[in-house]
Amino acid sequence: MFPTLSHLIEYISGVFIPLPFKTFGFFIAMAFLAGSWFIAKDLTEKNNAGIIPTTRKKVVLGKPTDIKDFLRHTLVGLVAGFKGLFAYNNYDYFIDDTFSFLFSLQGSGIGAFIGLVIGLAYTYYLKKTNTFTELSTKEEDVKPQELTANILLISAGAGLVGAKIFHQLENWDDFIADPLGQLLSGGGLTFYGGLICGAAAVILYVRKYGIKTGVIADAMAAPLMLAYGIGRIGCHMSGDGDWGVENLNPKPEWLQFLPDWMWAYTYPNNVIRAGERMANCTDPMGVYCYELATPVYPTAVYEAIMGVILFTIIWKLRDSFSTPGMLFGVYLVFNGLERFSIEKIRINNELYNGLTQAEMISAGLIIFGLSLFFWLRKKKSN
Questions:
Q1: CB crowding 70-87: b at 16 or more within 10 Å, else e
Q2: Mean pLDDT computed over every residue of the chain
Q3: Cα(233)–Cα(303) distance, rounded to whole angstroms?
Q4: Mean pLDDT to the nearest integer, 272-285
Q5: Mind spelling out the 3-state secondary structure of 8-23?
Q6: Alpha-carbon torsion, ordered 227, 261, 286, 85, to 10 deg
Q7: What's the distance, Cα to Cα, between the start and end of the chain in Å?
Q8: Strand residues in the chain grouped as ranges (E)
Q9: pLDDT in tens, 346-382
Q10: Quick check: 318 and 222 in contact, CB under 8 A?
Q11: Rounded distance, CA 303 to CA 28, Å?
Q12: pLDDT tens-digit map of 177-224
């Protein structure tokens, strides 16, 4: 496994460079980049076809330096110095758990003072060099594909909050035992929470640009499935705990062409340090030295494969339905079927009557997706 990007680079190049980036985070970034490319492509096609209009908005050309600029730059300088100098002096801790470090209250007082001074100096420089004495604006056309970056940032922010909330609901006892630790930890994210909250935030955002809910939902259907598949590759590569139940069964004859790790795997050097400590650990950091005592189903691999296959199908179908929203209904059904099927061999907490949170939500998505699809088709025929 490659718990950090440094381990992955070492595997490829033979050189270990200590970097504060987790492998899972790298693949999430790749998932967003891939998704953004396909979202922009689909929005461009819909704009050219007249399905999504070009809108106009006011753009600020320049404005005088004011108290808001002063507060913003000094605050950024203070926080950057507070965290930056402490990270430099405690680099091993910083790269070991970057997310938790950034959201902790630990930092350097000297660094905060230096950052504050730099922020003040920068604000003074801007004020002296700023040629604008009053607010200057102009109107310009905004094509829907130009909103892609904002759509991704909004979906990422709202998705992260939603993923955290749903994870805490699924693991309520752990949350009650250590609320702050659970909220500020680098792990503990539930996909469906991210999907629901991220989608709702994006729908609200694009309304002011005249993009209907069904249209933006269709544009995001295939990219969401692709991003999910790429994200699952990151889960497997880092060993983040999204694996299956114990698998001691011999590999079936008809699957002999697959490598053994695709059937059962112990996830050595996994990022969450689950299992037993390895007798001979080669981790340069001496931290990620654990592997599972018994092999499990590498379910993240199966989900990655299904995600890419379903993305291909949905992308091919994107011009097959004239009513906005029908393609998204197909996506919901595919998503629900994929997740519901994998839950039977995947580790998850049971919530009600032997069902997991993901099983209940995925079943709901299947029902909602089918209902949406046939309702829109009936609405069109009428």
A1: beebbeebbbbbbbbbbb
A2: 87
A3: 8
A4: 90
A5: HHHHHHCCCCCCCCEH
A6: -10
A7: 55
A8: 55-62, 136-142, 276-277, 290-291, 350-352, 355-356
A9: 887 666 676 777 788 889 999 999 999 999 988 876 6
A10: yes
A11: 15
A12: 766 665 655 555 566 567 778 878 888 888 888 888 899 999 989 998
CA 259, CA 373: separation in Å to the nearest integer? Answer: 39
Residue 332 and residue 358 in contact, taking contact as beta carbons nearer than 8 Å: no
Quick one: pLDDT band at residue 2, thresholds 50, 70, 90?
Answer: very high
| Percent of the chain with pLDDT strictly greater than 70 | 91
Strands 276-277 and 355-356: unpaired
What 8-state DSSP symbol labels residue 354? Answer: T
Is residue 201 a contact partner of residue 233, using CB atoms and an 8 Å limit?
no
Place of tokens 């594909």: 145
Full-model pTM: 0.82
- For residue 378, what are its two tokens? 């009936």
Query: Tokens 């953004």 — which residue?
Result: 36
How far CA 195 is from CA of 34, 123, 165, 274, 362, in Å, comes to 17, 39, 12, 27, 12
DSSP state for residue 171 in the 8-state scheme = T
Tokens found for residue 380 = 């069109």
Q: Residue 70, SS3?
A: helix
